[in-house]
Amino acid sequence: MNNPDFTSSLDFIRSIITEDLKANKNDGRVQTRFPPEPNGYLHIGHAKSICLNFGIAAEFGGLCNLRFDDTNPIKEEEEFVESIKKDVRWLGFDWGDRLYYASDYFDQLYNYAVQLIKIGKAYVDDLTADEIREYRGTLTQPGKDSPYRIRSVGENLALFERMRAGEFKDGSRVLRAKVDMASPNLNMRDPVMYRVLHASHHRTGNKWCIYPMYDFTHGQSDSIEGITHSICTLEFEDHRPLYDWFLDELQIFHPQQIEFARLNLSYTIMSKRRLMELVEQGYVTGWNDPRMPTISGLRRRGYTPESIRNFCERIGVAKRDSTVDMALLEYSIREDLNKRASRVMAVLRPLRVVIDNYPEDRVEYLDAENNPEDPGMGSRKIPFSRVLYIEQEDC
Fold first, then answer.
1. What span, in angstroms and rounded, lies between the C-alpha atoms of 50 and 31?
2. Is the pLDDT of residue 12 over 60?
3. Is 37 a catalytic residue?
């Protein structure tokens, strides 16, 4: 661990981890994960999460896993998987042999769901999506129980097995957790755990026709991998009680979920769904179009991995949402290139100038540093003669 003992100089996440290590929590282990969904290319907002998760693991002598949340086969593609791996590597991080997929755990997740059914904490519901939404209630009104909530354990087990066997149409039945329909937190009002979806998966093929929801997959995948600190963006704060509920009911290893404010950048679209629209509707040439705020787009625009890492370090980690000015990102690339780029001169709109009183056959060579910030880059010779070309706009 490269960190000093004073937690006052640390952000709140690193302070939590420092205290956990002092208390020998998790036997002194630190293990994080970066869990992207492979339904598009990563954007600059994801860079903050990548730098945070991999950076914390490195600082505290821990490990960081790369895990793809591939639970929605309709939107996921192998192209997106490969682009994500390329972007993480380009930013300078390595997951070693810890490349995982949520689909690696489909069998175990299914067994966990069966376990919850057997202890009376999950049930098969026949309500439609609209009916479930109606029964859920509002922020000011409690929800009401589904009429199928009282099904017996045996009936639920049989129906869930039939769901897996492919006997039901898409959307006809779901498996829901039996929590509390009167909870002030809407996420705790019997959330859906599994839905019927007859779709081929890019890794498991047609083995499954039911797929787990993110809220059920996330915590259990963290537990299986032995993640100690599950670092999420702030929109998952209201989901944390459900994250804890599943782990407690299953009585399995319990990681700690910690939320931080996501990156909001001025004048920039930070929604993967909106970026997908730009690509699909032909407004840009692809996910790596230099006009896109994707990591691959920034790479084509000339950004360096060092500049993006420095930018993420500058903006820091906070608990409250805020918007970062685009000027700070641009400053980061200018600062980085200023240290590494060679200086050259070009005349875009040349104007020919003749110095009448300078000898025609004479040429003088002047020394110019390639980079005044880095003497090690050497110098170059610039010729000075009777005929020169200058920029017209400088006249």
1. 14
2. yes
3. yes
Alpha-carbon gap, residue 149 to 124, rounded angstroms: 8
pLDDT at 1: 45
- Global model pTM greater than 0.90: no
Q: What is the Cα Rg of the chain in Å?
A: 28
The DSSP element (H or E) to which 90 belongs, if any, is helix 78-90
Residue 303, SS3 per DSSP: coil
Which residue of the set 262, 301, 343, 380 is catalytic?
262
State the Cα–Cα distance between residues 137 and 140, nearest whole angstrom.
8
What is the distance between the alpha carbons of residues 256 and 14, in angstroms, rounded to a whole number?
Answer: 13
* pLDDT score at 9: 67
Q: Work out whether strand 379-385 and strand 363-369 pair parallel, antiparallel, or are unpaired.
A: antiparallel
**C-beta of residue 340 within 8 angstroms of C-beta of residue 374:** yes
Answer with the residue of higher pLDDT: 393 or 59: 59
Angle at 309 between CA 307 and CA 314, to 5 degrees: 90
Per-residue confidence band for 7, with pLDDT thresholds at 50, 70 and 90? very low
Is residue 313 annotated as a catalytic residue, yes or no? no
- DSSP β-bridge partners for residue 175: 124, 194
- Residue found under tokens 């490990």: 63
